[in-house]
Write a structure and sequence with these properties.
By secondary structure, the chain is of the alpha+beta class. Helix content is 30%, strand content 28%. Strand 1 and strand 2 form a beta hairpin. The chain is globular and about 55 Å long.
């Protein structure tokens, strides 16, 4: 029986999530990647599990993994983007706020993606047109909502738009407190939460989000669920100043763009 791309994405992140759950709480060896950034043995083992599932079903597809880099043909039409443990610092500190992400880019579009919460045992998934969360084998349609007023703001570096835009300064704006309540969880699980109606919005700085192993799955989920997804200035994602603003509705999105724009000089808008 041939597995569909979206079911393959779900199976892949479930395999990675099982590894993440199984190794949780252990004293894990670390591989230093850069100052303040490292991978644990769980990152590497989870990625190996994910790649094993993908390669068994789609041996000709190219893959870019957070830990193993790129493999497969550079001219491949199909590219899997894999982040086996988004929230490594959380995980190493024995916090359960992490995600396991996989997305398939076919040509210029993400055509299948999944993001697993290993500890809630939920998988958020999309076929590019619709978005769902799977719990205990049952799928429920994702419905964005601004009602919580909770906005996750990524405070992890890099900050390519500093000093003009700084996430920490956004939280100090009086207008932010009038509209929203801040949250910081430092994992792209928070992006999936916007699609699910558990967050009103998500904001991050950054330029290079195209083909991002971290963000591809979450962006695809939010688009399919009907969220508003743009860069920091409201431009199409992956263009201009970069960054990412994902909001449950137009009103929330407009309020955030106004607050962000107040940080930039007029000639940078």
């Amino acid at each position: 029986m041939v597995i569909t791309d979206v079911e393959l994405a779900v199976a892949a992140v479930q395999a990675g999530a099982a590894v993440v759950r199984g190794m949780y709480g252990e004293s894990l060896p670390r591989v230093q990647k850069s100052a303040g950034d490292f991978a644990t043995a769980a990152d590497i083992a989870a990625e190996n599990a994910i790649l094993g599932v993908i390669r068994a079903a789609r041996p000709r597809d190219a893959v870019t993994g957070e830990e193993s880099g790129r493999s497969g043909s550079y001219g491949a039409e199909r590219m899997w983007l894999v982040d086996p443990l988004c929230g490594t610092l959380n995980y190493a500190a024995r916090s359960m706020l992490v995600a396991v992400n996989a997305a398939l880019r076919t040509g210029p579009e993400i055509t299948a993606a999944a993001s697993a919460d290993p500890f809630a045992e939920e998988v958020f998934w999309t076929d590019g047109d619709h978005a769902y969360v799977r719990r205990d084998g049952v799928d429920e349609k994702l419905t964005p909502s601004p009602e919580s007023r909770l906005v996750d703001v990524n405070l992890d570096p890099p900050f390519p738009n500093a000093p003009s835009y700084q996430a920490a300064r956004l939280l100090a704006e009086a207008g932010f407190a009038e509209w929203f309540r801040p949250r910081v969880v430092s994992t792209t699980l928070a992006v999936a939460w916007v699609a699910a109606g558990r967050r009103a919005a998500y904001v991050t700085d950054g330029r290079h989000l195209h083909d991002s192993v971290h963000f591809a799955a979450g962006i695809a989920l939010c688009r399919a669920a009907g969220c508003v997804v743009t860069g920091l200035h409201g431009q199409p994602p992956h263009t201009g100043t970069g960054g990412l603003v994902v909001a449950a509705d137009q009103e929330t999105h407009a309020a955030l763009l106004t607050l962000i724009a107040d940080q930039f000089p007029p000639d940078q808008l």
